[in-house]
Design goal:
This protein has about 300 residues and is an alpha+beta fold. It has ten helices and 14 strands. The longest helix is centred in the C-terminal third of the chain and has 16 residues, at about 250-265. It is globular and about 60 Å long.
Length: about 300
């Protein structure tokens, strides 16, 4: 007997999308592991963390899925580039948005050539959303001349402090949150900073395992940095949150390397996605200094309805 196909995208009541639930996250997590994409959007753990901000909704299409997100007053649609019958799915999405009174259909395109979209779509590169992709061996080892400065920074941190790295666990979630609280106090509480803090709290309280891991770095018995990531598929580690306190030379390089080494020990991967720079010059420079092997381009495809 042939295996039953997963739920399809079409629903008789016309309500193709619904707010993401924990049950949906289970289905997304199962499907995401079969994807080839190296982008960061299609990750159940990340979706859970950012639900209060993005208010993401989901619809299932064969063995894939599509997302409908609320982003700064706009509705954005997303789906993996390898989705079967991609053009047919776009037709259903545009009809869905038109039926809800939308005047502009927005689709955040990753890894699909914009010229392959149907006639009428306009393309606008979103450089602020490009993902930075790194080889695992580069960030776990900081080897070679290209990473000499990073190795020196890690050495400075280790020489300057009695340090230890602890895998994230129920016993040190409070220490992780203490770093997040202190970082937030230094940088303000409004806008994305406040939303990110809420996302970190959700990461620490998530009730299920969706491939996430993390680590806390201490200096002289004080927690000074943490990193949280997820393993959405075998080839990839996605860094979802990372913070370090000022005043500790080399602490950022140390948490980057130590967490990458720990995550690799759990399940070896080929690439690390450190996500976007949001158009912030300092963040962009910091990500460039880590020598990405590739930028994953993203394009906003729009269609006037």
């Amino acid at each position: 007997m042939a295996a039953a196909r997963p739920p399809t995208y079409a629903k008789e009541d016309g309500n193709l999308f619904h707010p993401i639930t924990l049950a949906d996250l289970d289905a997304i997590y199962e499907r995401q592991q079969n994807l080839q994409t190296l982008t960061s959007e299609f990750d159940a753990f990340r979706l859970f963390a950012w639900l209060p901000l993005d208010r993401s909704e989901v619809a299932f299409w064969g063995d894939r899925f599509a997302l409908r997100c609320h982003v700064r007053g706009e509705i954005w649609y997303l789906a993996p580039y390898e989705t079967e019958d991609f053009t047919g799915m776009l037709d259903r999405l545009t009809a869905y948005e038109r039926a809800r009174g939308g005047k502009t259909f927005r689709f955040l395109n990753t890894e699909r050539v914009p010229a392959g979209f149907p006639q009428g779509f306009a393309a606008a590169p979103r450089r602020d959303l490009y993902d930075y992709l790194y080889r695992a061996e580069d960030l776990t080892a900081f080897g070679g001349r290209a990473y000499a400065a990073k190795r020196n920074q890690v050495s400075q941190f280790k020489r300057g402090h009695a340090w230890r790295f602890e895998p994230l666990s129920p016993g040190n979630r409070g220490a992780c949150l203490a770093v997040a609280d202190e970082w937030k106090a230094l940088h303000g509480t409004g806008g994305l900073i406040g939303a990110e803090h809420t996302a970190i709290e959700r990461m620490l309280a998530i009730p299920k395992d969706y491939g996430q891991s993390g680590g806390v770095l201490y200096a002289d018995d004080k927690p000074v940095a943490f990193a949280i990531g997820s393993h959405p598929r075998a080839a990839l580690l996605d860094i979802v949150a990372e913070k370090a306190l000022p005043g500790y030379t080399g602490v950022y390089s140390a948490i980057i390397q130590l967490y990458a080494q720990y995550a690799y020990s759990l399940s070896p991967f080929e690439f690390i996605n450190r996500e976007e720079d949001m158009g912030l010059p300092n963040l962009r420079e910091a990500k460039r200094q880590l020598k990405p092997v590739r930028l994953i381009e993203k394009t906003m495809m729009t269609l006037e309805l």
